Amino acid sequence: MSKKPAPQPALHKVIMVGSGGVGKSALTLQFMYDEFVEDYEPTKADSYRKKVVLDGEEVQIDILDTAGQEDYAAIRDNYFRSGEGFLCVFSITEEESFQATQDFREQILRVKNDENIPFLLVGNKGDLDEKRKVTLAEAQGRAQDWGVPYVETSAKTRENVDKVFFDLMREIRSRKMEDNKMSNGRGKDRCKRKKLKCTIL
Amino acid sequence: MPPPVVTGISPKEGPPGTRVTIRGEFLGNKQSDIIGVSICGCDCLLSAEWKSPNKIIARSGPGKGRGDIIITTLTGGTGTSTVQFRGYHEAVGPLKESAVWVEEVQSIGWGSTKSIQLDDPLGLSLEANENKFPEDDLQEMFPGCNGDLSSENFSPCWFLLQNHSNSSFDDLRAGLAFLRRKVDSHQEGQLSFLKGNVSAVMEQLEVLEALQVAFQKDVESFGLDRTEKIVEAIKECRNEGKMLFDGVLKGREKADRTRNALGVLHRFKFLFTLPTAIQRKSDYDAIISDYSRAQNLFGKTEVKLFKDVLTEVRLKVAEIKEELKKKLHTMPSSLDNQKKIIRNLVQLEYEGDPGWEGITVRMNFIMEQLNACHSFYSEQIASVKPKSGKRDKNSQDKQAAINCRVECIEDLCDIISILIPDLWSLGQSYFSGELSTKFDQNKLDEFKAGVENCLKEMCRLVREVAGKGLTGSWPNCLQVVRAVLVALKHIPHDTILALVQFFRIECVKNILLTTAEQTKRLVDKEDWVLIHDSTHGTITHLPSLFEKLFNDSLSILKESALKLGPKEAELFSNPAMKSEVNEHAHAIFNNYIQCLDTLSDINDDEQSMSVSQLAFPTFRTSLSHTLNWEDRVLACISNCRYSCEVTVPRMEKTWNEAELPSLDLSKPTSDLRSLKSRLTACYIENRTDPLVGTVEPSMYIGQFEWEADFTPVGVRPYANEIIANVLVVHAQVERRCGWLKEEVLTEVVETVAEELSRLMLCVSHMSRAGAIQATLDITAVEHALAKYTTTQARNFFSEALDAIPALDEESKKTVDKLLAEYKKKMYMQLLPFEAKSNS
After folding, report:
1. In angstroms, how far is CA B507 from the centroid of its own chain?
2. B420 with B455: CB under 8 angstroms?
3. What would the mean pLDDT of A127-150 be, rounded to a whole number?
4. Residue A38 has pLDDT above 60, yes or no
5. B84 in contact with A at a CB cutoff of 8 Å?
6. Pick from B444, B440, B411, B421: which is nearest to B335 by CA?
7. Interchain CB contact of A136 with B (< 8 Å)
8. Looking at per-residue confidence, does B686 or B120 come out higher?
9. Within 10 Å of residue B232's Cβ, how many Cβ atoms?
10. A162–chain B nearest CA distance, Å
11. Is there a contact between B137 and A32 if contact means CB atoms under 8 Å apart?
12. What sequence ranges are listed for the domain IPT/TIG (chain B) (predicted)?
């Protein structure tokens, strides 16, 4: 798959992670097609890609919507490898989904082997505030621990939906630019990172 | 519309048949817009389900690997895809759940399945499949390479990533050492190989030596060629084995044969049970089918057993044939039954033509039935007749005979309408080949003639019976015959049609005749109850009775004979028939007129007249009638007029409405008129004669003489009597039939005047007083009867007055005086005459 037509806009690969039923697909579909899907149908692995304008520049976003269910935990590694940025979603109405974010974070770090991978902690179902189980402070505390932003969204009302995707893309973009600089300027840093990987293993 | 763009796929990979939700833009506006759906190069249009312009659901095809999702719409053309679907084929192993059935044989052969790979060249254990590095990533990293050890494009990195991405560095190092050792061992020479395996080589040498020793020992004891012995032993073994197995095989063969034989016997069991089944005669159809089966199977058999049984069966079948034939010839039997028998006979290869036989039997049966029925009823009628010894019983017997005849006709019709359709349908079955017989086309005419004969015979018998008279039962019988017509709707029935026509004609004639008869008998029905009619005077019930009788008859006619059934011809197309009907109608009217005539009694003896002579109207005769003669005559006259003016025209209308040939009733009307005038004349005569007869005696009563000299003091009694008598007649006529008054009274007055003039002319001498008296009397009478005095009467009166000697002035005065007195005195008596002008 190495066809490379010259003027291809930059491609940012985003991966949706999180427990089953927290609204990963809902967020994705809301972002992609402005529609809110009410009926729940567990996802296996869905792929979406479209052109968006990010800060005046046309880019392509590729969203991999993964399965939240534990049944698919084994194949996640493979998916995570290809991701450039992660939206780690939980439902503010479900405590367990919030706890599970910890595991997802760890798995991503293990696979990507990069502490600074673009990552957003997303508390979905913001419209169901009356059923809230995870306090804002709790979530923000965890995000702070990890050094990532925390955003509360609602796939139903589309609140902050565009924001999370665009924020993540910006991070990915700046990350890529940084990488380019490094590889162009000092190839050593790159090697250093690889060495680092070896020591962890 | 722009070309469709697929931007989303859910899920993005799966085995063939995965339900895939395709999302994007411009995916068509309705199901029929989509004209192409291709996933990984596989056409999936058939399974595509359009949901919205952004969403289509389809099932993936058997494509393998990554591929675009291309949607083609009617308006947008072929589209593009930003996402890709990966199809893969799941290898079904023995421990994997599968939706399809996996042949076990395959999975048992562990070694042959591809899933088990060769030993790892690094000597390391294989990683679990789940942690495999994604193939497409590898392809991206190492284009044009693969991880197959035997491939030219083998890439060690690929191989390591694919198989050992999770192995630790130490393991890999150990693996490298292992590989190196293996390679080194290949490179060292044969010597080193021997060195490495000294002990094994030595062991082999020792074994070889031991073998040689043993072999030489054998040569010593058994000779050089040991194969001979072995061959012999083998031969022996073979013979032994053969012997052993021969017994077994033979036994088996025998058992097989027996089983075969049993099977055959079982299969043909029915043949052996056939004779008993035939004996029981339960179900012919079953027997016949078994028989034909047996014929087919064993007809040419050489097996004695079968032959014997078959002959027995044939004998029995012959019996059955006989029996069936007998049954066929037995009537009555239902149509279905007969058809079945015929079919059975045909199946049994009956010699002859059972179908035709059945038809003949049926035809004969019908004939027999008809004749039997006829003779039965003939006897009945005959047995009724001899009893009629006495006169009064005669009519009863007659009625009984008629009833018998009607029943006979009904039965004959029943026979035809029940049996002929059966016969016809049997014939149709026969000639259409439905009875599976070969039929003779020539017999078709014969059959038709036969049916026709049956019908003709029936008609003949019916006509014969009916010819003896049915009187009032004609309409009934007509109905019955018509029912036959309906029953034979599908069968040529001209004969019956003719019969119906005959019946209709007879019916018309008969009813008219009967009506005439009944009209005659109306005489007895007259009850002389008087009904006052303002225009026609007092009438009786007779006219209305007659009208009712007539109308009843007509309505019966309308319902029976005149109603046109299907295919029935117009009745009165024949002019002879028309005139006959007219004659009958006239007969009815003549009878009526005669009836009226008889009732009026005018031709009767004079007894009644003498009784009512000058009697008061209240006088009652001792005759059977409650009315006296005059009243009856007057009633008859009224009846005549009423009939003439009201009833007859009404009846004429009814008649013509009944679609009978138009009737000219002028003759009956004129007859009625003449009867009326005859009766009137008679009445007048009878009333006038006594009246006039009394004038002369009364005039000369008490030796009265015109010559005598006396003083006239008033009108003499005889004149008063004349007036009184005329008044009586007037009263009677006025009461009974006012319209006749004028005619009767003028006649009476004329006669009276004539009589008076005759009497006056007879007087030879008349004194002065006599003259005064006579003038007074006559003038008084003339005055009193002035209203009804015709010119002729007036002439008579003046003749009478002329006969009286002329009066002097004084006498005239006397007369005028007395007349004035008289007028005053008689005012009340004369009022009725005055009343005429008022009425």
Report:
1. 28
2. yes
3. 92
4. yes
5. yes
6. B421
7. no
8. B686
9. 10
10. 17
11. no
12. 4-85
CA dihedral B638, B641, B647, B650 (to 10 degrees): -150
Note which residues in 27-66 of chain A have CB less than 8 A from chain B: 29, 32-33, 35, 43-51, 60, 62, 64-65
Return the closest-CA partner of residue B739 out of B819, B634, B633, B830: B634
By CB atoms closer than 10 A (0-12, 13-18, 19+), residue A88 is buried
B654-706 pLDDT, tens digit per residue, is 777 777 777 777 777 888 888 888 888 888 888 788 877 887 887 787 777 77
A78 chain-B contacts, CB cut-off 8 A: 132-134
Name the nearest CA neighbour of B419 among B470, B504, B361. Answer: B361
Q: Token pair of B769, please?
A: 């007083």
CB atoms A77 and B7 under 8 Å: no
The Cα B48–Cα B59 span in angstroms is: 7
- DSSP state at residue B622: S
* Alpha helices, H only, B521-574: 522-525, 542-559
Which residue, B480, B455, B477, B456, is CA-closest to B466?
Answer: B477
Q: Which residue from B minimizes the CA distance to A62?
A: B83
Contacts of A44 in chain B (CB under 8 A): 10-11, 14
- Chain B residues within an 8 Å CB radius of A35: 54
Strand partners, A16: A65, A87
Residue A43 and residue B139: Cβ atoms within 8 Å?
no
Determine whether the interchain pair B137/A82 forms a contact, defined as Cβ–Cβ distance below 8 Å.
yes
Q: Residue A28: closest CA among chain B residues belongs to which residue?
A: B8
With 50 as the cut, is the pLDDT of residue B384 above it?
Answer: yes
* Nearest chain B Cα distance for residue A81, angstroms: 9
Backbone φ, ψ for residue B532 (5° rounding): -90, 125
B80 touches chain A (CB under 8 A): no
Residue B604 forms contact with A (CB below 8 Å): no
pLDDT tens across A184-199, in order? Answer: 655 444 444 444 444 5
Average pLDDT of chain B, as a whole number: 76
Calculate what percentage of chain A has a pLDDT beyond 70.
87
Q: What is the pLDDT of residue B610?
A: 41
B551 has pLDDT over 70: yes
Chain B: give the shortest CA distance to residue A160, in Å. 21
For A91, the enclosing helix (H) or strand (E) is: strand A85-91
Cβ neighbourhood burial of B390 (10 Å; 0-12, 13-18, 19+): exposed
Do the beta carbons of residue B402 and residue B469 sit within 8 Å? Answer: yes
Across the range B287-308, mean pLDDT stands at 75
B603 vs B348, more confident: B348
Note whether ipTM > 0.85 here.
no
Distances (CA, A) of B747 to A99, B1, B792: 147, 122, 10
Considering only CB atoms, which chain B residues are within 8 Å of A60? 82
Query: Residue B9: enclosing H or E segment and its boundaries?
Result: strand B5-10
pLDDT band of residue A143 (cuts 50, 70, 90) is very high
Question: B362 to each of B222, B325, B342, how far by Cα in Å?
Answer: 105, 14, 13
Return residues 81-120 of A near B (CB < 8 Å). 81-82
Q: Is B137 on the interface with A (CB under 8 A)?
A: yes
Rounded distance between C-alpha atoms, residue B643 and residue B832, angstroms:
29
Q: Are B717 and B822 in contact (CB under 8 A)?
A: no
Share of chain B above pLDDT 90, in %: 4
Round to whole Å and give the CA distance between B445 and B443. Answer: 5
Query: What's residue B113's pLDDT?
Result: 40
Q: How far is A175 from chain B (nearest CA, A)?
A: 22
| Ramachandran region, residue B220 (left: φ > 0; alpha: ψ -120 to 50; beta: rest) | alpha
Comparing CB atoms, the residue among B12, B23, B139 nearest residue A33 is: B23
Instruction: Report which of B411, B417, B332 is spatially closest to residue B375, judged by C-alpha positions.
Output: B411
